[in-house]
Structures are given as C-alpha cells and as structure tokens.
Design a protein that fits this description.
CATH superfamily of the largest domain: HAD superfamily/HAD-like
Distance between the termini: 28 Å
Number of strands: 6
CATH class of the largest domain: Alpha Beta
Helix content: 40-55%
Length: about 230
C-alpha cells in the first residue's frame, strides 16, 4: 500500500452507532434512582469521557468503589437500551467494508467499557471488519489523552503518524492530535469549534470513500501541527 494512511482507528458512539440517547437515558435513570442531579448540559459536556472521569466531575464522588458502583449500574442500563436499538449510522458499515477490502488495518478504540463494545460489535457484526478492539478501561488515561488510540496503533503494528482516527467528539479529536495522528471528524449538523482541529470534517460518513482517505491525506507530508 502506497498510501500515507496505513490504519484507520474508529471511535464507536457517534461514529459507527448513535447511542447518545441511550447513554443519556442511562445517566438520567441512575441519577433518579440515586437522588442525584443531572442535566442535558452535563451530558453534552462529558459525552465521550470515561465514567471514572464523568462521575467525580458531575457528582463530586471520589470514592473509587462508589464510582465503580455507579458506573456499573449506568452501563447495565445502557446495554439494556442498546440491545433493542442498535443501528449503524449512515455510511459506517459501507466504509468499514470498503476499507477492509482495500487492505487497511482497522481498530475500534472507544472510551466505552469492554462489555459495551462487545455488545455493539456483536449486534452490528463489526468483528468481520476489525482487527483490534480496544476499550478505554484498559489504558491509564481517557480522552482527551491519546492512550486508547496509541494502544490501538500499537496492537495494529502501525506508527501513530500513519494512523487515521475517525471521531465525533471534541475530546476524541484532541486525543488524536495529542497522539500525533490524522483525524477525520464526523460533525453531523453540529458546529463545534473544537472539531475544526481535525484534518477533515464531514457531516456524515456517507460522504467518505476510500479515495477520500487515500487521496485526501496524502497532501500532508506529516501530521500538521497546531
């Protein structure tokens, strides 16, 4: 392969599947049962982060055991909701398939717990396209730190500088940039300034073809610096 990009590393929520509503419902359910406050604003500000970062931030909980209890409860509810609602976003499965056929290595690297990743992967048949699955639970630091993406690149056997991350969250774009990787951001109808730090921003993956990746990122001799 002569492309500068040798591997594609996918985020999950908001990129392959839109389960933001299921996450939000799960957080609200935990909050209601525990008598804790929660708002759409808090959800928007923390979406894409790991639970062990979200819970201290929104509820001020610092005890590790308590954080894990709340996180586990939230994820049980999430898997209940997603079991009946797993639908791939437009263009995602098509691009996964086309990239595999073109010979690109591919990984799924998400802040989500491993059980969530496995549940969605099974529901959508993602493993036929992917070489590696990496959960944010397995690395020291969550996004915007680059740990989960760097681990994915290592497991794929590809240098970060030859890797493309597909993300939809500002924290994910920041993580990709911090890891020295190229980044394609899926913005949908949102206009988030933080997404503009990506090398390429699209509304939908339906706009993206293998040629987009093969040609669009060859113009950069190296990852652009801020």
């Amino acid at each position: 392969m002569t492309d500068y990009i040798h591997a594609v590393i996918w985020d999950l929520d908001g990129v392959i599947i839109d389960s933001g509503e299921e996450h939000k419902r799960s957080w609200y359910r935990v909050a209601a049962e525990e008598g804790l406050p929660f708002s759409d604003q808090q959800f928007d500000a923390t979406f894409g982060m790991r639970n062990d970062a979200i819970i201290p931030l929104i509820w001020g909980v610092t005890d590790k055991k308590r954080i894990q209890e709340l996180a586990d409860k939230k994820e049980v509810y999430y898997r209940e909701f997603i079991h009946i609602a797993a639908t791939a976003l437009p263009g995602a499965l098509e691009l996964l398939s086309a990239l595999k056929e073109a010979g690109y290595k591919q990984a799924l690297a998400s802040s989500a717990p491993g059980k969530n990743i496995e549940a969605v992967s099974a529901a959508l048949g993602l493993e036929q396209y992917l070489d590696v699955l990496v959960s944010g639970e397995t690395v020291p630091h969550g996004k915007p730190a680059p740990d989960v993406f760097l681990k994915a690149a290592t497991e794929l056997g590809v240098e970060p500088a030859h890797s493309l991350v597909i993300e939809d969250a500002v924290a994910g774009v920041q993580a990709a940039k911090a890891g020295g990787m190229f980044c394609l951001a899926v913005a949908g109808e949102r206009d988030l300034p933080g997404l503009r730090a990506a090398n390429l921003v699209v509304k939908s993956l339906a706009e993206v073809k293998v040629a987009t990746i093969r040609q669009g990122f060859l113009v950069y001799p190296k990852v652009p610096k801020e």
